[in-house]
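Ticket closed. Logging final result for tRNA-t(6)A37 methylthiotransferase.
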Amino acid sequence: MPSACDSLIDDIEDMVSFSDPTPHERQLARKSIIPRSRKKKEVLINEELQADSVIPGTQKIWMKTWGCSHNSSDGEYMAGQLAASGYKMTEADLWLLNSCTVKNPAEDHFRNSIKKAQEQQKKVVVAGCVPQAQPRMDYLKGLSIIGVSLYVCVCVHKLIRNVGHSVRLLGQKKDGGRRLGGARLDLPKIRRNPLIEIISINTGCLNACTYCKTKHARGDLASYPIEELVERARQSFQEGVCEIWLTSEDTGAYGRDIGTDLPTLLWQLVEVIPEGAMLRVGMTNPPYILEHLEEMAKILNHPRVYAFLHVPVQSASDSVLMDMKREYCIDDFKRVVDFLKERVPGITIATDIICGFPGETEEDFQETVDLVKCYRFPSLFINQFYPRPGTPAAKMEQVPAHVKKQRTKKLSHLFHSYNPYDHKVGERQHVLVTEESFDAQYYVAHNKFYEQVLVPQRAEFKGKMIEVDIYEAGKHFLRGRPVEDSKPFSPSIAAPLQKGEVSGLMQSAVYHTNSICFHSFSSTPTQHTH
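Final structure:
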């Protein structure tokens, strides 16, 4: 069933001088999404890396992304910048692989893809958290690398011109010595789904969880200014988007480095959301949302905000949480959940659990089982612990593999023993239709509580708010029958961009490829939640 470039250069923008042609000049009408509030010095570092070293439109690139919504957003920006610079995103002799370092399996898939590309004599450029965190891994030798904050195609130009040489772009963006929040938000991008805009509100985090490898890649907290985020959202709606996802390694910590906070951002964002469009708040860890519970409850009750929050607990044992350095105790987590469930009726709380963390005893695990029995989380991401190289947890005494598997199986069985949506049958709901189910048999919509509702696949429903009667409930979904005489409502204030169309370019000069090949494999937001 469906559910819903070896030289080191500090800043990608330093590789382009004022005299170099830009994507705007190549496209004749590059549209600026937001004003740049921070002046950035542009210096030509290497003549070989000029952005016009390859004739635009003559090269093809195939791209694949793994990981969380933050990594998906990075992938959208990479695809957009490449397309805006004249590359065709389709089956090609050059592969751009955007990686995830959360768990061993994700990195294994990434490593296997590199091997497959090399066996097929493909050129390879790697990006994302794996090469950022571990650029000296043997299997990355000789490959060009783009770090997590530097998503531009210049290193691809370098690779095409100089086969056998590699360029590594791993620097972080800074302003007066202060780290900035990732790449600019006004860069072109190709949305995987033209109806959904994914906005990274900050990069990095304030924690130092002992199991987390993502911290090595994303670093400490760096937040985007509120005005840039609001303008990004406004521009998205002007391009037909009807749903926005806010993402980061920890949305609850947003703004602590720039003198603001998450509720302040959210209140300004809801002012620019059109009627019927929706906002989804991404993962927040318990420590940084505790002080904002009152305001968060008010915001989550707002009609244009999903009553949904992802709060990873990881374990219900204080002993294990201490070894993880999670900086909260289980009572803190319960306080967050209990408060929100009382103040936001029907709210969906999603959480994550790691089974078999080093030192976890049977008593520790039982506390986690009891927590799930008590709250019966409708959305639960269960993961067997994977020791990531270079993390403190990898050096701890490990729980035997068979015990980890047994605990994971037991918790999964418990999760599948209850049906969280049975009581929804018979309800009449308004749902926003934004996606297509994996089996292509239904459209996927979400109600106010971000519960998946499968509806008939009618063209007039896509991107619309419709009214349905719930007639069936499954473990992970609801089925809805459209209410007769109820007309679909369009929250979009403009026609959505076409699939593969580049966001941020003038309509008269939009770069569009009919054969776009843009793969995204999203993982569950588990061990990267620190």
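The chain has 14 helices and 23 strands. No further action required.
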